[in-house]
Amino acid sequence: MVADPRRIDKIRSPPDPRGAHLRELQSAKDDYIRAIASCIRTRPGHLVGSLSEPEKNLLAEIVYSGLVPTISQFRAKYGQPFPVIHGYRYSGTKPSVLVCFVSPHVPTHPGVPQEILDTFKPFLPAPAAPEAKTLSAPPETHAGRPVRVFSGERHIAAELGRVLRLTHAGKIKVTDSSRRPTDASTRLLSEALVQPDFALEAPKEETDEYTDTAGPVRAHAWGVLVQQCGWAKPRAGCLGLTATGKDILAAFTPEKFQAGIEGFLNDDAFDELHRVNHIRGQNGRAKRYISAPGERRACIEDHIDEWPVGEWIPFDEAFRLLEAAGGNADVLDSDRGVLYISDAQYGAIYGGHELARQFLRAVVMESLATLGLVDIAWVYPHDLWPEFKDSYGRDSHSYVGRYDGLLAVRLNALGAYCFRVRETFDFSPAPEEKRFHLLPNHDLAGVEAPDAADLAFLELIATQKSERVWRLDAPTILLAMQQGTRLSDVRDFLSNSTRQGIPVNIDKWLEDLGDKALACGTAHRAVILEWKDSVQAHLVATSTGTGKLCHHAGENRIAVAERHLAAFSREARKLGFLIPPAGK
What we know:
Helices cover about 40% and strands about 10% of the residues. The chain is built from 21 helices and 17 strands. It has helices spanning about 20-40, 45-50, 55-65, 70-80, 115, 155-170, 185-190, 220-230, 245-250, 255-265, 295-305, 315-325, 355-370, 415-420, 450-460, 475-480, 485-495, 505-515, 535-540, 545, 565-575, and strands spanning about 140, 145, 150, 230-235, 240, 310-315, 340, 350, 375-380, 405-410, 435-440, 445, 460-465, 470, 525-530, 550, 555-560. Helix 4 packs across helix 12 and helix 6 (about 155-170) crosses helix 15 (about 450-460). The relative contact order is 0.08.
């Protein structure tokens, strides 16, 4: 049966019984919104007066910043619970009246226009910046343990120079997979430190076979930091200096150092969290849920100006100030329990501020203190558990990470300059001890046994005569120059390490050595052709076509550069000579 097209226009859909109801709901919603807007515009002071103190603080943050602070940021700044905005239906919790101002779909942005928010400004003071709670000095003891203090600002130039000399000598070996220094290289770096590494091991009377060993911190960190800062890169399993590394080794300046710090902050190849001993699951598939370490460091950099320059603050306060400014450096991008302590099922970690605190501890103690940007106070970490104290598996370990004993931190002038908190830095390094006498007879006599960095560089320029005496040796220096050492590096080492400076005759000797070393400008590969007699060799060497492409090497030999061999063969064929392939 075919429908009559003339009757189609008379067909009507059945009435929708929900249509009128939906229209009524939309109308009620519009009326509700208009009523709220009218109340806000006409009686903003009354609304503010009905709020609790936390609600007033939250509304002030929204009004003046145009953004809704996170729960952790609000708690860190005000020390108050974040108001309940959206309660569950059966929770029994009454939501705040600020429910109109915070969207459940976009929780970081207010749910009303800015022109409406502006009506509250006469009734709410602008939020003040969080005030730092400083210390006059770190405590002398903590948990019955002596507190130690480290300040590397004035020694950074000398210590970096030692590390770079070790690197230049090819002494720093790294693993192929992680590019971190090997155990042997870490021990060598430990010997080169200007100040001793952090003492993190527990006293012998408090240890047993189950006590965790903390191991080195700064000695390990330098093998990573020179790569992050762009001063070195691995070549065949060893670190070698880059152009910027050679430049800062030749002359340390705050500007060059600051440029290296920028590279460190943006680096994603290394993560300080990997050095937190007992947080497991950081490799493999879990990587997709872990934020980039460069993003976390950048978050710290953006808000480190909250730390007062030159004043001690407790570590808890340092973290609070960063968190209050929005710089909590979340490690996990989701709430998946991909990280864990001891057991993946029972000891799972679901992010939060405790994980961010552990990362900040590692960054401060492993990287920032080693680079001389902050001063720190610490004790050995065993059995303190400042984070994760209620976690499963605590009884199996002495601590979460070797940095658990970090107590206080101070942003120094170098750190303020490198983080661009201050525009200038008055560089006043501690005077480095001159460790050698350079004698006119080319002998270098050590005042005391040289450290690992000096010893590595001595091997490049001198031969050892006795336990503390080395002799400058021209062939040894020339071999080092052929492998990349500059004569200026030799001069800088001798000038900075010897008490009387470079004698006049040694200075002239080095000048002559450099002139001879550079006398040969270029090198080309060549093929030696042997003829049956010297008469034929002389004929070819002096002919018009072949003569300009070769050199007579005496008797029956002719030298031809590899790049000219094909052309020489063509010209030789014109003379009736056939040039065999090389090696035949």
